[in-house]
Amino acid sequence: MAEITREKAMDMAVKYLSFKSRTSSEMVKYLKKKDTDEQIITEVMQKLSEYRYIDDQLYLKNYVENNRHLNYYGSRRMIQDLKKRGISDTLLLTLADLLPSEEEYLCGEMVAKKQLRALTGQTSVQKKKKLYDKLGRMGYPTEMVLEIIRTLVLEEEPQELTEDELAIKDQQLNEKLDRDYQKYARAHRKKGAAGKELKFKIKKSLMGRGYPYELIDQKIASEQEAIEED
């Protein structure tokens, strides 16, 4: 393999930067991967720094700005990501100045409200858990997550349905119940259940799916003859 000259290493570095900004650490790793001599790497990094092609402080500032408008990650996720990219602990101490807790809170609140719209129809408990998990994965501090969730209105305003809408909803529920009933009946019959045992197991399975107790009783009563034949 031909020796990589300083000019060649510089060309490689500029091309590597043409795709997106890089940290000092990323650039050094890239040049080492290309079997570039240590002295040449040092010289190239000095030049890149002089031209401000490589500037970790500016990189951090731009990263935070992009996050504020695109990704909306919390500080913990950002720190974890930036460390992987080689940003020093000293520079990371300035993150709090670039993204004050008040701004981080607003970003987290925006994420939570967007997620909440996708959770329509779920219980308050389900919403809280999913919001907590979502914001946690995105790197927001636990106390901030809890505060954001506390300020949100999780209960939904009840919507009055027309008679036609209620009839359609009832029909859909009964059709779904029938499908689940047939599924569980087949499954329990295959396992040898019959008579009262079959009836009990089907009822238990349907209750686990969240169907109203009275509706389950009505369905089983309508299938009583088929159950007794087993």
Could you please describe the fold and organization of this structure?
The chain contains 14 helices and no strands. It has 230 residues and is mostly helical. The chain is elongated, with a radius of gyration of 30 Å.
Q: Number of helix segments?
A: 14
Q: What's the helical proportion of residues?
A: over 70%
Structure class: mainly alpha
Order of helices and strands: HHHHHHHHHHHHHH
Largest sheet: none
Classify the beta-strand content into a percent band.
Answer: under 5%
Low-confidence stretches: none
Strands, count: 0
Mean pLDDT figure: 90
Q: What's the overall geometry? A: elongated
Distance linking N and C termini: 79 Å
The gyration radius over C-alpha positions equals 30 Å
Fill in the keyword field for this structure.
mainly alpha; 0% strand
